[in-house]
Design brief:
The complex is a heterodimer of chains A (359) and B (460). With 359 residues, chain A is mainly α. Helix content of chain A is 69%, strand content 0%. Classes of the chains: A mainly alpha (359), B alpha+beta (460).
Chain lengths: 359, 460
């Protein structure tokens, strides 16, 4: 038995040499390093978008202080502009829901919608509220401000109701403090992030891939799916529309998809110049077709979004727009298999942290 | 196989042989169980896998096995930890092994999304340990009841444990004899390149030839290691290979305690002399008194039901892993006859399953968010396994039947909904392809062991 086994080992080993010979030479694929990709993403996307968000939130804060002392329509518009800028930048920041951002639950405390106007109004009239409480998650953040700044009574409330003004002050102050805490957190976390290239589900690389996918799916489901009734037998729910009062939901969707596309490609947040991203990793793994498919799909989605010249709520209310909305949703849905299934599978990233034996 | 049984394990199951290897194995096995159970509890997995989920994927025929309410689920784990300690010490040995086997198997039967080959292995080994007298020396039982002490025991008591290990390795090796593993070096190519940032060695791991080398060596290792462990001459080298191989897999892949279970379990292949010396050393250390005269051997009569029981067990262990031959189509794709067959680290499957619940009368549809009902792990497992896709669809039907959906204008109540799924799966580095077509109403399909012809055929 033993002798035969040794013989078999020899035969197999020789077979091995032959089977590999032709594969060794064509190893001319591009160089790629996960560590370099993480460095590029943190230095040229995460940190710059965080800095921009910090500036915008502090502009929001100072413009609101200015408005408080002089509550005119012009000054309110100024506040609204800064709110809008912050909200657009948040579309990039929210992709990175790990490390300092996850530690303080920043993504949900800043970006939860639909907003709960009843809760907000009852908070304002009763006075005793804790904005950090879990029960107030739909009464804080950028969407609470959407309601507070844009509802039809906003200016009157600001001019006559100091509790209303205090509430807005509290919401902005909370966001300002949390942003500072993330900025400080990333000072120390950058090195951890850049070096965590492993394959375990808790490595920064895996968290990045998984959160990228989660953010994409959230954009698909929450920004479009829920409002058009995908989870409600096709019965539309305009109350689920993001930023319903300002009506900038399509702008936010467009910005979110652009941010995801730029992150996928590793493009610099400030000047758009190319760097190392998931795209480069796929090309390195000889999956150029998949890389092309993902970028084409992103472009198709973006051009679909541009086809809407009204607000999302108006589109939902107009039966003639139904097929166009369904088409947009279909494209959003078709991208999921590319990035969540094919891309993740190619990277060899794990989704759960429990023991695994590969089946 | 006959030859293997004759030569490797000696057909003479009832020949008397030194009990020392069995005693040493009991201690090692008990310690491993204790460590694994404590690790499982400490990692919070009782919570995430047996308390948090709202729905459990039962095994066919065992759907009645349900978890205990809330924190009560910790009870079987505490019983397992205590009985593992008792197994190690040889205290109330038969009762402890029985309790461990029952609790462990109960927990494993609750949810197939937690299925791992090494859990199945632990179930089988604890079952076997329940049947063999591994407490008849150097145990608290033997201290309390000196009359049970034995110096020798029937050969099958040790042989069957070796057989079980041989089954694990050899079937794991046979499973690797497939085109993806040998000629594409998949899934290792995918898994190894992901380590390209490891200092000094990373560049080797992303070379294609490394993946081929690991694939072929892993296959040869699994197929032949048992034979090299059985032969006295090659044993030292074989055991070094065991350590090297399993430590490497432990470093590269998240396979938990399995590598250590194998490294420690394979010590049973060591010589009787080795085990006797180890046992004598332990006895000295714990001042074990040998003063009471020990009965030398178990003058056991060859009982036919034991013999046939053993033969039946061996036959089952060989038949279960080859039951896949009864199904048409690609095994990795269809996963019919896949579990309980020692197919370890064999494929990389990633899926995306979108479920649609449809109101038959209005034709209106809901797109399901799977994670409203499943944990991340359950969803991940379900999306690539047809039987779980079917189970989930049937669960969704129950969940949605009679529910009312409305907006400001309209209200619709779902009655007897249809459930369809569109599923895409990527297997071993290939592009994803359609796995389940949306045309099937899954609620109308039977859940049984027959071939599932509603799975889309695998395209190369």
């Amino acid at each position: 038995m033993l002798k035969r086994s040794i013989g078999f080992v020899l035969v197999m080993s020789i077979g091995l040499l032959f089977s590999c010979r032709d594969k060794v030479d064509n190893d001319d694929n591009t160089d790629f390093n996960k560590g370099e990709m993480l460095e590029n993403v943190s230095a040229n996307i995460i940190i710059p978008s965080l800095m921009k968000f910090e500036t915008e939130v502090s502009n929001l804060k100072s413009s609101f202080e200015n408005f408080k002392s002089n509550p005119t329509n012009v000054n309110l518009d100024n506040v609204k502009t800064n709110w809008r800028e912050s909200y657009l930048t948040f579309q990039t920041l929210k992709i990175f829901d790990f490390g300092p951002i996850r530690n303080i639950g920043f993504k949900s405390s800043t970006g939860t919608y639909p907003v709960d106007p009843v809760k907000i109004e009852s908070n304002i009239s009763s006075g005793g509220y804790d904005l950090a409480a879990a029960s107030n998650i739909a009464a804080v953040g950028l969407n609470a401000l959407d309601y507070l700044l844009y509802n039809s009574n906003a200016l009157t409330e600001f001019q006559n109701n100091s509790s209303y003004t205090d509430y807005v002050d509290g919401v902005i102050q909370k966001m300002f403090n949390e942003t500072q805490s993330i900025v400080n957190g990333w000072v120390g976390y950058t090195t951890v992030f850049n070096e965590s290239t492993g394959t375990s589900s808790t490595s920064a690389f895996s968290e990045f891939v998984n959160e990228f996918n989660r953010d994409y799916e959230l954009a698909k489901t929450a920004k479009i799916g829920f409002p058009i009734g995908k989870a409600n037998l096709g019965l539309s729910n305009p109350e689920y529309v993001e930023a319903r009062y300002s009506g900038i939901s399509f702008e936010l969707l467009e910005e979110s998809i652009k941010a995801l596309k730029a992150t996928y490609n590793g493009d610099d947040f400030e000047n758009g110049s190319t760097g190392q991203g998931f795209s480069n990793y796929l090309v390195h793994l000889e999956r150029t077709n998949l890389d092309d498919a993902i970028n084409e799909k992103f472009d198709l989605i973006l051009s679909n979004i541009e086809g809407f010249t009204m607000t999302l709520e108006e589109a939902i209310d107009d039966p003639a727009m139904k097929s166009q909305l369904d088409e947009l949703y279909l494209h959003l849905q078709q991208q999921v298999v590319n990035i969540k299934t094919d891309m993740t599978a190619a990277f060899g990233v794990l989704i759960t942290y429990q023991d695994n034996d590969g089946d | 196989m006959i030859r293997l049984l004759n030569k490797g394990f000696k057909a003479d199951f009832f020949r008397q042989t030194a009990i020392a290897p069995l005693i040493v194995f009991r201690i090692i096995f008990g310690a491993m169980l204790l460590y694994s159970i404590l690790r499982f509890i400490m990692k919070g997995w009782v919570e995430t896998q047996y308390i948090d989920p709202q729905f459990y994927f039962g095994f066919l025929g065992f759907e009645w096995v349900k978890p205990l309410e809330g924190s009560l689920m910790y009870i079987p784990f505490v019983i397992m930890a205590i009985s593992a300690l008792f197994i190690m010490l040889g205290f109330f040995y038969r009762m402890s092994t029985f309790l461990f086997f029952v609790c462990f198997t109960y927990v494993e039967l609750i949810d197939k999304s937690n299925y791992l080959n090494h859990y199945y292995f632990i179930s089988l080994m604890s079952f076997l340990m329940m049947l063999v007298p591994a407490h008849r020396d150097f145990s608290i039982d033997a201290k309390l009841f000196p009359s049970i002490r034995k110096k020798e025991t029937a050969a099958w008591h040790i042989g069957i444990l070796k057989f079980q290990l041989a089954v694990v390795y050899i079937f794991a090796g046979l499973a690797k004899l497939n085109a993806d593993w040998l000629f594409e070096a998949q899934p290792l190519k995918t898994w190894l390149q992901a380590h390209h940032n490891i200092p000094y060695l990373g560049w080797i791991l992303q070379e294609e030839i490394t993946a081929y080398f690991f694939s072929w060596m892993g296959c040869l290792y699994d197929l032949f290691i048992v034979f090299f462990l059985l032969s006295k001459r090659t044993r030292p080298f074989a055991y070094l290979a065991v350590i090297f191989f399993h430590v490497l897999t432990w470093l590269l892949f998240p396979i938990g305690v399995f590598p250590w279970v194998m490294i420690f379990s394979t010590t049973i292949f060591f010589s009787v002399k080795f085990h006797q010396q180890l046992l004598n050393g332990l006895k000295k250390l714990f001042k074990w008194s040998e003063s009471i005269p020990e009965k030398v051997n178990d003058i056991s009569v060859l009982r036919p039901f034991v013999k046939y029981g053993i033969i039946l067990y061996l036959a089952i262990q060989i038949l279960i892993p080859i039951r896949f031959l009864a199904y048409p189509g690609n095994l990795f794709w269809n996963e019919e006859g896949f579990r309980f067959s020692w197919r370890v680290m064999l494929m990389h499957k990633e899926g995306l399953a979108t479920f649609y619940v449809t109101d038959k009368s209005s034709g209106r549809t809901i797109e399901v968010n799977n994670t409203d009902f499943l944990t991340v792990r359950q969803e991940d497992q379900m999306m690539t396994q047809p039987d779980m896709i079917l189970q989930f669809a049937k669960m969704l039907k129950k969940e949605f039947d009679g529910k009312t959906f409305s907006n400001s204008k309209q209200s619709i109540t779902l009655r007897d909904p249809a459930v369809h799924a569109e599923v895409f799966v990527s297997l071993n580095g290939r592009s994803s392809q359609l796995f389940i077509d949306r045309k099937h109403d899954l609620t109308a399909l039977p859940y049984n062991l027959k071939h599932r012809d509603w799975i889309e055929p695998f395209k190369k």
